[in-house]
Each structure stands twice: as structure tokens, then as C-alpha cells.
Amino acid sequence: MKIINVAIDGPAGAGKSTISRKAAAELGYIYIDTGALYRTVGLNALRKGADLQSDEAIIATITDDLKVELKFIDGEQRMFLSDEDVSDKIRTPEASMAASRVSAVPKVREFLFDLQKKLARENNCVMDGRDIGTVVLPDADVKIFLTASPEARAERRFKELTEKGMDVKYEDVLADMIKRDYDDSHRAIAPLKQADDAILCDTSNIGLEESIALIIKTIKDNI
Ligand code: DC
Q1: Which domains are assigned to the chain?
Q2: Under DSSP, is residue 134 helix (H, G, I), strand (E, B) or coil?
Q3: pTM for this one?
Q4: Disulfide: which of 24, 46, 179, 219 matches 126 by Cβ 3.0-4.6 Å?
Q5: pLDDT tens by residue, 76-97
Q6: Element (H or E) spanning 104, and its range?
Q7: Which residues contact 35 (CB under 8 A, 6 or more apart)?
Q8: How far apart are the CA of 159 and the centre of ligand 1, in A?
Q9: Residues lining ligand 1, CB < 6 A?
Q10: Burial class (CB in 10 A: 0-12, 13-18, 19+), 114
């Protein structure tokens, strides 16, 4: 049977993970959050005390014994760093910034590339990230570029973090978002950009339920 791969790319806070998870459940596919892989490598670099300004220092944390694993537990993706479940620890603002930083290092992208390819080869999946339609799965059956204005995305991320009890300011979340967008789209390797054959979906002015319905319809109409 043919394996179906759906690629969903876009900037931070566009609702990619929530929407992709729901779409995958509706289609009976697995959902793969590739940002979590970069976050896990970023957390490892933070824990090792690496100087995140230095590519060399980041590369030095990609050791032969570095074990980054993605497991599905009760249908949910969990991230493991050397057998420790770090799924929650990779969600802090520090881990977000570290993820963005390490993701600009070619050796890190190489390290995670095969794992992503293998998962897509073996499973019907909805995979979300920044370079899925352009680099990881250029032959994906459906490609979507999901975006929203920086303010709409910062608003959503702020709500999510405060609901988790984190003490953050909206202005800081917006500034982080704008910086991360800039860094992700201007890095030399695999920058965030819409694939030529990706369908653009902008959710600035629609709510979550409507966005989910739009993406599911877009996928179904195109597979
Ligand atoms: O989607 P996210 O916010 O969890 O991603 C965390 C960081 O990882 C983000 O700043 C960019 C990077 N990333 C990437 O470079 N390529 C991907 N496929 C996914 C994420």
C-alpha cells in the first residue's frame, strides 16, 4: 500500500502542532512534530553548558553517544534524551531559543535528517516543521504552508504559556517570535520558506476550529 506523507511548514505559533495533530487523527495517520527533535538537541546543548554563539561548541554536543529518540506512547509523540522523557522540559522559552540556534547548524540538521526520513518512509504521517516540504520530504503528497501574523501568533503563544503557569510578558513573547522568525528564515541552511508547490493557509483571522477544518479539507482534497 502506498504510504502517504503530508508536510506542514510555517513559522512558530501558527498553530502547526495542534492543527497537524488533529488532522493526523482525523486521517488515521501519525503526527510527527520535528520541532521537538531540534528542541531536544537544544536542551542537550543547554544542559552541557555549550556556548550557543559558537557552532563548534554546539557541534561538540553531537557526540556518538547522544541518544535522541521519538516514541509514541498512547498515540502521542514523546521525546527522550538518553532515556529521559524530556517532552515537557523542551517547551520552555530557553529551550525554544536553543532549538532555533542549534537548528542553524548543518551538522545538527544532518544528525536529525535520517530519523525524519525513516519515520516518513514507514508511516502514513502528517509531519510538521520548517523545511519538511522543501528539504526533508520534497516529494510529499500534500504540502501546506501554515502561517498567521506575528501578533496573532504571539497572542496564542502567550495564552498557551500563561495557561501553563509560566510568568511571561506578551511583549517578550512577541519580540522572541519576531526574532525567531527572522533567524529561522534567514539562516543559510534549510531556511523557513514556502515550497513552490505548497498550498498557503493563513489563520490570522480564523479561530482554531475553523483552521483545523480548513487544513483537513485541504489535505483531503489533495491526496
Ligand atoms: O516548531 P518549534 O517551535 O517547536 O521548533 C523549534 C525550533 O526548531 C524552531 O526555532 C526552528 C527549528 N526547526 C527547524 O529548524 N526545522 C524543523 N523542521 C523544525 C523546527
Answers
A1: 5-217 (3.40.50.300)
A2: helix
A3: 0.91
A4: 24
A5: 899 999 999 999 999 998 999 9
A6: none
A7: 17, 99, 128, 129, 130
A8: 20
A9: 12, 34-35, 38-39, 96, 99-100, 103, 129-132, 180, 184
A10: exposed
